[in-house]
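In response to the reviewer comment on reproducibility (Comment 2.3), we provide here a single inverse folding case reported in full, input and output, so that an independent group could reproduce the run without further information from us. The structure tokens appear first.
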């Protein structure tokens, strides 16, 4: 089927029973939508001018029908080696989040971005005025769905009906997006039963390729890379995304709603929406501890959330791998939920050694985007070399013939698997508990090749917030940044902040109240290297050794020593027995004085430049104290 041909819905259904103005409803009962949803759909239809609307119910038959269409068109290829698994190759110019085209619009600029020093380009969020944004939107959305179907997707972030959950409706002209939303969120008209007087988050998405298409469609993946815009209107609880079908750009429940919009709701309602995994660790005594951890994109959340511990007697269970919504309950306990329903995980590097639980999660009902394909109908990416026949012929994500050992790579570095969380063999029995799970520790981390020790504990809640504010990491393929430069990524939220970062730090500080059990805050670094560039720490399943130290600290064990940057493990207090290669403790935990003096200066400067008068005083005071203690060393 050519990309200019209209989809054959009407032949399939022949149930043009309802009319929306002159727009047929291909599926679903428009009248059953709550009236505020109807109103918004009509408004959006008038602007986007789709040829039909399709009201989704999230059911299996619906997914089967859409999958069938995408197979016919050639957007999806069946991976016959598994059960109901599909490969999607995107247009090679639509492969990651586009941070440079992601905006937040509020009437008042400083609600969105901090007071940046004159002449400095702010990196903590991009603001556009309502007036300028209107122009951008008006240039793109009118007529943008011509010749395409508009899918109406009702979804819940969090278990349907939980007091911690929120409802959204996404309108999109991409059926690939519909299939992924169905895995990543809870798509069901049942959400409307719980909507009542509450607001819903309005998510409008278009690939920006009305028919007849002007731009040549590559790989049957319509998109409009030159005109991408991802616009957020936090006050109106609204997202408008145009031009990209990929990941966080198009699955609007994820970064747009569950982080950028939700962080604003969380500020207003006194809770937290964070780029964090949630996991539990049960020690050999049977004591269970829940941990939430924030690492920047492609820095190890999925891997940590599902680790297979190498220490005997420990059990890990997964609650979520990317986003945590957390709030203190009336007893002063921090409770967290995973608002998502699936994993959209980095494929390269994932194998049965590094992450067997992820591997077991995507053997069925999964979508693989921009991975390579083996001749026997399987997936392939960098990291799977030891798990397939070395002579297997492979077709790369760019559709080229390839073999292991040949130059270049088979999968895109940001290739991803999309699979239902329920398929992960170590999901926690309470992962959908409407009350959430009790969080005892928060961890920050990043890719830090030099200077930063394997683990440290903050002195206090405030000091932990300071550590979070100074998170840095090597850039990865999750967004458009090129090369491996070390970038600031405070709280692992730089690309996902919904409001002024200084106010966000204030919000974190304000959460500490009498009667609340504040979680302990830690920082970890799996990525420190020696002078030859080799990782000093084996990582993955061995990270349980660090988690063990962390939970012992949560239990009050005296196994830490004070350093200028926080409490470090007493020498020997991390279990090292059974490690394949010996670990150089002194190198893993050294704090080179000059490195840290420079780093502390640089972080101070960063906050002064980027957050200016919005930085809470206590954060600057703690940085000053850190500098002084290094000077005394
Ligand atoms: P997003 O989904 O983008 O938010 O990423 P994430 O934080 O979930 O990252 P993920 O767990 O998918 O890890 C990304 C990459 O980091 C993979 O290529 C992993 O192989 C690598 N990685 C994860 N954990 C470790 C570790 O402990 N040590 C080392 N050396 N690499 C790791
Ligand atoms: C990330 O980049 O942190 C992701 C992938 O989790 S995306 O959904 O594309 O944002
Ligand atoms: Mn993420």
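Designed residues, in position order:
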């Amino acid at each position: 089927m050519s990309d200019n041909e209209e989809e054959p819905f009407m032949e399939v259904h022949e149930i043009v029973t309802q009319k929306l103005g002159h727009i047929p409803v291909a599926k679903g009962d428009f009248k059953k939508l709550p009236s505020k949803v109807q109103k918004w759909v009509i408004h959006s239809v008038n602007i986007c001018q789709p040829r039909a609307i399709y009201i989704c119910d999230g059911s299996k038959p619906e997914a089967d029908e859409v999958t069938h269409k995408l197979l016919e068109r050639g957007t999806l290829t069946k991976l016959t080696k598994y059960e109901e698994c599909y490969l999607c190759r995107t247009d090679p110019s639509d492969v990651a989040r586009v941070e440079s085209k992601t905006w937040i619009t509020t009437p008042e600029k400083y609600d969105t971005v901090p007071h940046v020093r004159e002449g400095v380009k702010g990196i903590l969020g991009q603001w556009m005025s309502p007036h300028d944004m209107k122009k951008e939107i008006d240039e793109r959305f009118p007529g943008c769905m011509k010749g395409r179907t508009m899918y109406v997707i009702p979804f819940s972030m969090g278990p349907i009906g939980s007091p911690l959950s929120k409802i959204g409706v996404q309108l999109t002209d991409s059926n690939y997006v519909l299939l992924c939303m169905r895995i990543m969120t809870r798509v069901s008209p049942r959400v409307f039963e719980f909507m009542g007087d509450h607001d819903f988050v309005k998510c409008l998405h278009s690939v920006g390729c009305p028919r007849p298409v002007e731009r040549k469609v590559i790989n049957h993946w319509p998109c409009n890379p030159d005109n991408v815009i991802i616009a957020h209107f936090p006050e109106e609880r609204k997202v408008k995304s145009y031009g990209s079908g990929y990941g966080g750009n198009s699955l609007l429940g994820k970064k747009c709603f569950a982080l950028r919009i939700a962080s604003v709701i969380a500020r207003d309602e006194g809770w937290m929406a964070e780029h964090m995994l949630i996991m539990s660790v049960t020690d050999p005594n049977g004591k269970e501890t829940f941990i939430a951890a924030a690492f920047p994109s492609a820095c190890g959340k999925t891997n940590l959330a599902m680790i297979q511990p190498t220490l005997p007697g420990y059990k890990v269970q997964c609650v979520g791998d990317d986003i945590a919504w957390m709030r203190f309950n009336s007893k002063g306990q921090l409770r967290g939920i995973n608002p998502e329903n699936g994993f959209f995980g980095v494929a390269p590097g994932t194998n049965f050694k590094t992450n067997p639980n992820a591997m077991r999660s995507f053997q069925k009902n999964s979508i693989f985007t921009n991975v390579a394909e083996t001749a026997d109908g399987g997936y392939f990416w960098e990291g799977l070399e030891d798990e397939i026949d070395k002579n297997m012929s492979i077709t790369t994500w760019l559709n080229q013939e390839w073999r292991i050992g040949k130059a270049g790579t088979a999968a895109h570095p940001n290739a991803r698997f999309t699979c239902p969380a329920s398929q992960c063999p170590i999901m926690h029995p309470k992962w959908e508990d409407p009350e959430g799970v009790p969080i005892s520790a928060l961890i920050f981390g990043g890719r830090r090749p030099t200077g930063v020790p394997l683990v440290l504990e903050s002195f206090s809640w405030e000091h932990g917030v300071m550590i979070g504010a100074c998170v840095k990491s090597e850039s990865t393929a999750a967004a458009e940044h090129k090369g491996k430069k070390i970038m600031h990524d405070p709280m692992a939220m730089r690309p996902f902040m919904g409001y002024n970062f200084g106010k966000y730090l204030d919000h974190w500080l304000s959460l500490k109240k009498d009667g609340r059990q504040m979680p302990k805050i830690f920082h970890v670094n799996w990525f420190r290297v020696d002078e030859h560039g080799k990782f000093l720490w084996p990582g993955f399943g061995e990270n349980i050794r660090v988690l063990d130290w962390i939970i012992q600290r949560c239990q009050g064990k005296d196994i830490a020593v004070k350093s200028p940057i926080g409490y470090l493990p007493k020498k020997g207090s991390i279990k090292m027995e059974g490690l394949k290669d010996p670990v150089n403790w002194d190198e893993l935990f050294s704090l080179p004085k000059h490195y840290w003096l420079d780093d502390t200066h640089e972080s101070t400067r960063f906050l002064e430049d980027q957050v200016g008068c919005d930085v809470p005083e206590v954060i600057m005071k703690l940085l000053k104290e850190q500098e002084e203690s290094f000077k005394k060393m």
